[in-house]
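thread: overnight batch results

M.L. [08:02]
morning all. the overnight job finished for the chain we discussed friday. pasting input first so we're all looking at the same thing
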Amino acid sequence: MANLTGFKSDNKGLFIQKDSQANVKYGMDFTDYLNTGDALSSAVVTIDTISGDSAPLALPTDAATDVAIVGKIVTVRLNGGTNGNIYNVRIKIVTSQGDSDARHFRVVVGDRQA
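M.L. [08:03]
and the structure it wrote out:
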């Protein structure tokens, strides 16, 4: 399994617990998925929408500034979200050797206590 920042795992897969007021950067490490000598060339993040959601989970500004490749890690800054909602996030990567892959995780939004 890749090294992950802020992620937990359950029987449904990876997830993040996020406060609706948080504007936080998360990182997903693709090192274990890359062939020797390969590197990340691009990353695209999509967030599933929830019908009627008045404060959806989103990239705070836009993909050009909120999604970054740092070595073999894709960082994603997430903002907002409605308490009680669970959002599905997908990171699709393309490598310098022409491979493509995707990883999915959930973001569980709710008030977080200290």
